[in-house]
Amino acid sequence: MHGLQDTVDKMNEKIKKEGKENNDSISMKNKLNSNNKDNCNLFFSSIIIFGTILVALLVFSTIISAQTPVNTPSEVSYCCEKTLSGAYCQNAPKEQCDTSPKSTGESYSVSPTSCDSTSYCQEGCCYDSKEGICMENTPKEACKKQNGAWSDSPTCNTPQCQLGCCVLGEQAAYVPLVRCKKLASLYGLQTDFRKDIQNELSCINLAQAQDTGACVYESEFESTCKFTTRGECQGDKLDAVGNLSSIRFYKDYLCTAPELNTICQPLKETTCIAGKDGVYFKDSCGNAANIYDSAMIYENNRGSAEVIDYWTKVKKKEESCNSGNANINSKNCGNCDYLSGSTCGTAQKSNSPLYGNYICQDLNCHDTANGKDYKNGESWCYYDNGKETSDNVGSRHYRHICSMGEEIVEPCEDFRNEVCTETTINNGFSQAGCTVNKWQDCLTQKRSKDCTNSDLRDCTWIPVAKDVQDFGKQVTDKISGGVQGLLFNVQEGERDQGVCVPEIAPGLKFWGDSAATTQCDLVSSNCIVTYEKSLIGGKKCVKNCWCESQTVALQLINVCTKIGDCGPKSNYLGVFSKGGYEVTVKKGASGPELQLGKFDPSLTSGGQASTAANPGAYVTTPAQTNPQAFGGSGNQTVFGGSAAAQAAGNTQTTGNVIQGLIVNTYNKVAGNINKTN
Amino acid sequence: MKIFRNKRGQITIFIIVALVIVALIVVFFALSKTGIIKIPAIFPGQDTDLKSQFIKCVEDNKNIDNSVKLISSQGGSLNPSNYILYDSVKVEYLCYINEYYKPCVMQKPLILNNAESEIRKASIEEISKCMETVKKNIEAQGNVVSLGKMELNVSIIPENIIYSVKYPVTIQKNENQQKYDIFEIRKPSELYQMIMVSTSILNYEARYGEADILTYMTYYPTIRVNREKMDDGSTVYFLSERNTKEVFMFAVRSYAWPAGYSG
Predict the structure, then answer these.
(1) Cβ pair B105:A440 closer than 8 A
(2) Of A66, A356, A551, B154, which has the most beta carbons under 10 Å away?
(3) pLDDT digits (tens, 9 = 90+) for B48-98
(4) Would you tell me which residues 40-79 of chain A have a C-beta closer than 8 angstroms to some C-beta of chain B?
(5) What is the pLDDT of residues A232-268, one digit of tens each?
(6) Is the same domain home to A23 and A45?
(7) Which structural domain range is residue A43 located in?
(8) Are A386 and A485 in a shared domain?
């Protein structure tokens, strides 16, 4: 045994000299790691006979308190119809309620109950009769204040909010009737509301199936034309119609069709059309024709039957140039495809098309933050420290989105209350989302199976590490009074040997709130080690000797780092703080500073692994090596390599970037030993 | 052709042709849409001068534009009361709950109405100032201008914000009198679309919490939707129009989760 064991041995020698029997309490105290200061240390102190701290009580009381809403006021909560900050229907202390008079003269209501139980804060639907918009979960007073019509259905299940298909030319919207009327009036179209259409998809399909064609009519003594739908080819929908009887609709014909004999002539100009992907030719009447194709310029190919046909009948996307391709920045073809990553947009000088000013713009994202290219609509995860399971202090998960050629960053909720999850569909189309990190009840799980039930929680099980002498068995066999703490308390039968911790440790708000420090105490543990003094001098460990094992300290520190911003950790910038915990061996004695090293995956057989599975696999970096180190060998000190190898089979691939520690020395204890020596 | 042997006859013919041409021109300008549009340009008068001066003044007024920007960045309110401070901007909660794990309660259900009313409040003074400036200009030309009481109505519609100004104005010069009553100023703006997307997001937040911004951007490609989750569980949404760069911001606090084991 190295490190801790050596220290304890030396301590034992010292105690032997003193010639008395001692009970030493080894307690591991986990502290907050704000990573701003070295606030977390490892100490050993000893106490005589009684050294146990009621950690268990602390653990359970804190866990129980975690299950209740944090901002629930300790005093009686009132339902304020309006708070002083102007919010409607909030449960708050009475002094935060607004009791000023409303516009009607009566005061805003306040009652010592939850808003769910009051009539004045009953949530309903607020209906805007002007716009035809329905807003859910609205209190009556908030709705009345804005001249809305309130009804008592929080989900707006009312006749005026009943959705239907609103056909607007070649487009459609799945909205209530009044909204449809409003939209139709805004776009100068006739209201076409189909309440028999029961879903949005059918509604879109219906709009796409509309007849379109050339609407020919007389205006200012000329035969002109508008390319529109059959429904819009009516006198009141057309500008300056001379003779109503002259209006004719020619399905699938373009206004430039020679046989229609209108004033509309083919042009070289192009345009973008709202709701459509492609670049379209224009005619002299301002109508859109077919998709831009440089080979179909009328002026250049007057005699060509193909070109005449192209300017006569409507061609589908599939019949147009280079179909099925995004045609990004193509100079000759405007058959853009949104799903393939292109849409009509203004051309830059560097990539202008042969004719017109519009081109199929690239909507994909290139050379993104992680160096990769993504398609339009793809989303992916991004981590502060580059690793999915990074839980460094202050680190956060991000969802990146590629939308219209832009890389948009959406941070997941802070304190790692949300984590980013990514998957791929359809040939590698990446989709990511911020999901709730369900870590809250990890510490209360006693069974490995319950702990790793991903339907219920996002936790990982750290088994009790096995030392060369089967550490776990020792614990369960020899556990006796004076042992407390989550990891130590592994009585066989009551729970599996190990501890359940969050898969991705949540962050703690360690500033301006001392509660965060208490939270790190959740995994603090105690163990009383009893020594028997022999008559002829010296002492022998007789009870809970396993607690002296270095493996125990490493285990506890690993658990500590896994429950939050506790223990030795790096921050999101990668700056490592070796504090975050303390181990006391002697009551009142301040333990020496430990030298910390970083976990070296190369020392394990399973790649990334938890400390639990590789309890001894820690190395020190040259800078961290303490010259007083025990068990050190040169610049690289390896502890318990054999134990690590043995435990590799238990590897928990949490992927956590484990910042381990190496116990090089306890200055104070060592100092004592030096003195005795 | 006997008729053209007579010079007087020829002149008569020319006069008739000239009259017909003039008549056609008059008919063209009186009846055709193009002609109606071109008349003011050809014959500029005081009538359009006052109107155009006033409209131009309102259109170019930076204070009105800045007020609209401020209102848009504050969730549609000029002076928000229930807000979160984001980068020194008071972003109003449009849907809010002060507790954890609960859906938000709608605070400003009719955002469009509210924004219209707030823009009206913020711009009425500037519009009035514009009329005063125009009045001075017209009076400097020797006219007597009398102004009635101004009424302003603001409508946010697709692609525009319409300022409908009911302002009775009478211009007197010698015997001539000109009267104006209603002026309509349209300022290009994509605020309508952004507000409509916001209402949809708010409904989603109130029912399920956390709307998917990618879905909205896919449905409305011209609108960019960003959001930032704050450490108190609030979410600030940023909607921006990709072409005009206009921004609409609002805050929501719905289904908030506490930080740490006990917050």
Answers:
(1) no
(2) A551
(3) 588 889 999 999 999 999 999 999 999 999 999 999 999 999 999 999 999
(4) 62-63, 65-66, 69-72
(5) 887 776 766 666 777 889 999 999 999 999 999 999 9
(6) yes
(7) 2-67
(8) no
